[in-house]
Amino acid sequence: MASMDLPTIAQHCSGYLAAAVISVPIAQRLGLGSVLGYLLAGAAIGPFALNIVGERSSDIMHVAEFGVILTLFIVGLELHPATLWRLRSAIVGLGGLQVVLTTVALALVGVLAGFSLNTSIAAGLILSLSSTAIGLQSLKEKGLLGTPGGKASFSVLLFQDLAVIPILAVLPLLAMSTGTLVLDKSQINHAHAAVTAISAVPGESAARFTVMEHLFHISKLVLVFGALLGGRFLVRPWFRLIAAARLQELFTASALLLVFGTTLLMDLVGLSPALGAFVAGVVLADSEYRHQLEAEIAPFKGLLLGLFFIAVGASIDFALLRANLVVVIGLILTLIVVKFLVLWGLGRAFRLGLEGSLLFAFALSQGCEFGFVLLSFSAQHAVFPMETIKLLTLSIALSMAATPLLLALHEKVIVPRLRTSAPVPEREPDKIDEHCPVIIAGFGRFGNIAARFLRANGVSATILDLDSEQIELLRSVGLKGYYGDASRLDLLRAAGIENAKLLLLMIDNEAKALEIVDNVRHHFPHVKILARATSRDHAYDLINRNIDNVYHEYFGSALDLASDTLRELGVCPDSTASALAVFRAREAESLRELAKIRGTAEYFPAAQKFIAATEAAIRDGCLADAAEAATTGERSAALEQMDEVGAKAAEPGPERAGA
C-alpha cells in the first residue's frame, strides 16, 4: 500500500465516515439494518461509482478484516467452554454436512452448465462458505443469535472458518489435474510447492514435505493451543497488574494487544486469525475481566466491522456488472437458491423447526469474505480464468449485500405469516382428566410464578400451554399441565371452564390473549378473567374489554425496586408504604381513564396531569404524616427524609469524596 500524505488520509477518512453516517441511519430507518447501510455507502463512494476514496478499497479491506477478528473474539467471550462443548455435534455434524452438501450441489450445477468437473468442485468449495461478518452481525443486531436458527448459524460459521485451511490445500490440486491419472514431474513439483506454502511459516524454504515436517507443524499447533490455554492463567495476573495502574488507555492497549497477538500467532502456523481470536475469547470467557475486555474492544470492533462492510461495497464493479448483467444475476440466484435449499433441508433434518430452519437458510445463503481470499489464491494457481474470478468476486459481494434484504424479508413478511396462519399443531391436544376452579392459560415466566404460589397455598389449577417443551418441563418437576391452544372452545370445555370460577390469562401473544378474552366473554360470561398485560397498550386493550383485573408483568417488580431504593436512602418504612399505596391507586386509575382516550389528541396532556397529580398526592401524604407526628409532639422524620432523599442520592461516593 503506497504511502499517503495527511490531506489524502483525511480525504479518505472523511469519505468513509460521511458515507456511513448518511447511509446507515437511512437503512436503519427503513428496517434494513446497519449492514446494508454500510454496503450501500461503500458502493456509492467506491472506485466504480463516485470514486471518492480512489482505488484503495482492497487495501482498506485488509485493515478492516480486524473488525471480523474482534467480532469473533467478543463472541468467544460470551460463550463459555462448556457451552461450546455442548455445540460440538452441531459444529462438526451440521457444519460438515453443510460444506459437503453445498459443494456437491453447486458442483453438480456447474457440470450441468458445461464447466469441467475440477472447476465446478473448486467453485463449489469457495461458494459453500458463508459470511461470518454479515451473518453474525445481522443476527446479533436483530437479537436472533440465541434462537435455534441463530445457534445453528453460529455453529456452521465456526466450522467454515476451520474448513478454509483444507480448501486452500485442495484448490491447487484441482487446478493441476489434466483429466487423466498421470501427472508429469512439473505438476507433482507444483502440487508439492503449493501444499508446502500453505503449511509453512513465512520465509521457510520449500523443502521436501517429509513426515518430520508433518510432526513439526502438528507440534506448532499443539504449542499454539497450549499457549492459548495457558494464557487463561496468565491473563488474570497480567490484567490485575494493568488495572492497578488505573490508566484506562493502558487497559485498552492491553486488550488490543491480546487480540492482535493471538491473530499473529495463528497466522504464523497457517490457521485462520478469526478462529484464533474466537478460541482466545472462549478461553477468557470465565475471567473476571471478561466484561471489561468486551467494553474496551467493542468500539474498535464496531468501527472496523463497519469499515469492512464499506470496503466490500466499494469492491462492487458496476462496469463489469453492466457488461455481464444476466450472467451475474444468474450466478447470484444460483448461489442463493442452492444454498438456501441445502440449509433449509439440513435445518429440518436437525429439527430446528420451520421458523428456525428458514432463519438458518436466509442467514447463510450468501457468499463469504474468505471467498475473496480463496479467489485471489486461485488466481495465483490458475484454478479459474481471470474473467471467471472477476465474475465470482462480484457475485459474492452482491450476494453479501443481498443478505440484509433476505433477513428483512424473513422478519417482516414470512415470520408474521407463519405466526398468524394458525397452523394445525403438530401434536394433538392432551386429554384433560381434571376440572379445577381455576384455569391457567400460559405457563411462561409469569404464569410459572403464579401457578407455583397457588399450588403452595393449596389451590388446584388446570394449566394449559401451547409450548410442548413447557409442558414436559412442568411434568419433569412433578406438576401437571396439558398441551393445547386455550383459544379453542372445545379445549376450554374439556378443561372444565363451564364449571370454573377464574381464568388466569398469562400467554405471551397479545393478539391470541385478546382472542381468548373475546371467546370467554361471549361463551362463558360467568368466568372472571384475571389477565397479565405485556405492555401498556395491551393493558388498554384488556381494560376496554371490561377486564377489571389487569396486571402489568413488570409493575410489581419495578415498585419493589423503587421502594428498596427509598429504604437504602433512609426513608422510613411507613412513608414508603404510604407512597406505594398512593402510587398503585393512582396508576390503576390512570390506566382506566387513559384507556378511554388512547390515540386521541387529549391523551398526552391527560397523562401529564395524572403524573403531576400522583406526585402531588404522594407529597400530600408525607405532609399529613408530618402533621400527625407533630400533634403527638414527635419530630417528623418522614418529611425531613423526603426532602433529603435527592441530596443523599447526589452525594459523592467514597472515591469522589476522596478526590
Please explain how this structure is put together.
The protein has 659 residues and is mainly α. It has three domains: 60-180 and 191-412, Na+/H+ antiporter like fold, CATH 1.20.1530.20; 430-553, Rossmann fold; 554-649, no CATH class. The protein contains 28 helices and six strands. It has helices at residues 6-29, 34-45, 57-77, 81-86, 88-112, 117-127, 132-141, 148-176, 185-199, 211-244, 248-268, 273-283, 290-314, 318-323, 325-349, 353-363, 369-380, 386-420, 445-456, 468-476, 489-494, 510-523, 536-543, 555-568, 573-596, 603-631, 637-650, 654-658; strands at 438-441, 461-465, 482-483, 502-505, 528-533, 549-552. The protein has a six-stranded parallel sheet with strand order 3-2-1-4-5-6, with helices on both faces. α2 (34-45) packs across α13 (290-314) and α8 runs antiparallel to α9. The radius of gyration is 31 Å and the shape is globular.
CATH uppermost class of the largest domain: Mainly Alpha
The number of helical segments is 28
Biggest beta sheet attributes = 6 strands, parallel
Shape: globular
Task: Flag low-confidence runs.
Answer: 176-210, 633-639, 645-650, 652-659
* Architecture (CATH level 2) name of the largest domain: Up-down Bundle
In short:
This protein is mainly alpha-helical and 659 residues long. The protein has helices spanning 6-29, 34-45, 57-77, 81-86, 88-112, 117-127, 132-141, 148-176, 185-199, 211-244, 248-268, 273-283, 290-314, 318-323, 325-349, 353-363, 369-380, 386-420, 445-456, 468-476, 489-494, 510-523, 536-543, 555-568, 573-596, 603-631, 637-650, 654-658, and strands at residues 438-441, 461-465, 482-483, 502-505, 528-533, 549-552.
